[in-house]
Amino acid sequence: MFSQHKDIRSSLAGHVINAVKGKQNNVHDTQQFLFSFHRNIMLVNWLFSFVVFILVSGTVIQGQKNYCTVCRVLVREVEWLISQVDPKKSIQVGSFRVDPNGNQKIKDKQYARSELHLEEVVESVCEKMNYYSWLAFDDGTGQMVRTTGFDGKQLDKKNLNLDSEKGKTLKYQCDDFLENHEEELISLFQLENVSDYEKLICSEKLEVCTKAEVQVPPFTLPELADTPENNDDMEVLGGVTPDDDDDDVDVDADENDVNDEL
Question: CA 112, 114, 120, 124 torsion: positive or negative?
Fold first, then answer.
């Protein structure tokens, strides 16, 4: 009897031990699974972050290329507008408050490149982007070019691969560019005795262009040459032709001859 009880206790103990070992193995397997799962999650997160970084970097680089174009065009437009201001035009700056000695700290300053002038220029400069189109070159490169002269003269666009639709995007890029850099631009344009504003602003200060990019000279379309067709149009618009002038001269000469004979 005692021997039977002993065998039963031994059997139960064996089952308990095996169960405990099984639980330990299950716990170990669970731990291994959780560790592997956690490691895989970390790997996926790392890969996702890396892909996002690449995509964002590519977008920034592309944005910088777009900003380089619009920055160079904007600088040229602003510089031309500044050059059209009468150098004798001035404004009063300073404080109009009277000090204890009865004086006001006011002085005359040249209007061109003043903060007031530049604020007015920058406010409307993006509208000038409507005069631009994308010119594609045979080597696969291209530039944004003005299709109308700064002074309003017509430019020769014949036999050129111009994309006006792509040019329309320049205005939106200009608005976005000014939204981010307007204050900096106004401050930089106030600087005097600068030999190259494109290089200073677009490359050195705002860093939207490389040094090599700002060294590429802008392509300028030639002025539309005078042709017989253009002259005819001008003559019709003016209501006078060279033949009409000759006829007037001949009539006057005939009248003088008649008077001499009389």
Answer: positive
Predicted confidence band at 153 (pLDDT cuts at 50, 70, 90)?
Answer: very high
**In which residue are the tokens 């490389």 written?**
210
Q: Are 106 and 129 in contact (CB under 8 A)?
A: no
Neighbouring residues of 80: CB distance < 8 A, sequence distance ≥ 6: 150
CB-facing half-sphere around the CA of 230: CA atoms within 13 A: 8
- Cα separation, 86 vs 175, in Å, equals 28
- Summarize the confidence of residues 53-63 as an average pLDDT: 39
DSSP states of 189-219? HT--S-S-HHIIIIIIIS--S-HHHHTSPPP
Q: Could you tell me the pTM of the whole model?
A: 0.60
Describe the strand order of the beta sheet including 142-146 as a list of residue ranges. Answer: 142-146, 132-136, 162-163
Quickly list H helices, the chain: 2-83, 115-125, 164-189, 197-198, 211-214, 228-238, 242-261
Summary mean pLDDT of the chain: 76
